[in-house]
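Worked example

This section walks through a single chain of length 257. The input is the sequence exactly as stored; nothing has been trimmed or padded.
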Amino acid sequence: MNGRVDALFPVPDNRNMLPEVEKLLVVQNRDQKIVSIEKELAGIPLEEEDIRDKLTEDQESVDAVKKSIQEVEIAIKNLELDIETRKDSIEKLKVQQFETKKNESYQAMGKEIENYLSEIAELEEQELELMEKVEGFQGELGTANEKLAESQRAVDEDIADLKVLQKNLEEEKAEQEKQKAEAASAVDEDLIEVYERLFKAKNGHAVVGLVDGTCDGCHMKVTQSTVADVKKEQKVAHCENCGRILYWWTVESDSIS
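Given that input, the structure is written out below as C-alpha cells.
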C-alpha cells in the first residue's frame, strides 16, 4: 500500500527549497494520500453491493423453482380433495342403492357411481402427471441450489478480501494521519492554517511548483517579482492569481516520498 500511494504523490526533492515550504510539501503529501485512501474506503460499500448483486440472479432462479413446486403441490392437493369428494359420493350412493327397493333408482345410482369412478380415474391420471412435474422441478431445484451455493462461496471470498482491504486501508490512513500531524507540528500555526484553507479550496494542491514563470496549479503566468521571490527562496511566496504557495521547480529535481 505504501509504495503504491507514495508513487502517486511524490514530494519534490529540491535541496535549496525554503524549509517551511519543504515541510508543507510533506504535509501535503500525507494529506493527498489520506484523501486517496478515503476515496477507496468510500467505494468499498458500493463494491460490496456489486459483489452481493451477483447472487441475485441465482437466488431468483431458486425462488422461481420453489414457487413452481408450491403451485403444483397445491394443484395436487386440490385434485386429492376432488377425488376424496367423489369417493365419499360413491359410498353414499352405494348405501342408497342398498336401501332402495326400486330397480329404476338402483340403476340410476349405479350410473352415477360409474361416472364418479370415471372422473376419479381422470383425476388420478392428472395427479400422476403433476407428481412427475414435481419430481422434475425437484431436480431443477437441486441444480439451482448448487449453483447458488457455488456463487455464495465466491461472494463470501470476495467479501472477505474486501474486508481485508478495508482494514489495511484504515490502518494506512491512521498511519498517514499520524505522519501528517508530526509534519504539521513543525510548521508555523498561521502558515498551516493558510495551507489547510488552500488544500480544501484547491482540490488538494495547496503547494505547487513554479515552472518557467507559470504556476503549476492554475497554469497562469506570475509577475517577475513573484518569480524572483520564489527563486530566492527566502520567504513563502504565493501565486497572485490563485493564492497557492509556490516553490522553485527545476528539471533536475528528483522526488522523494
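What to look for: Residues 103-184 form the longest helix (82 residues).
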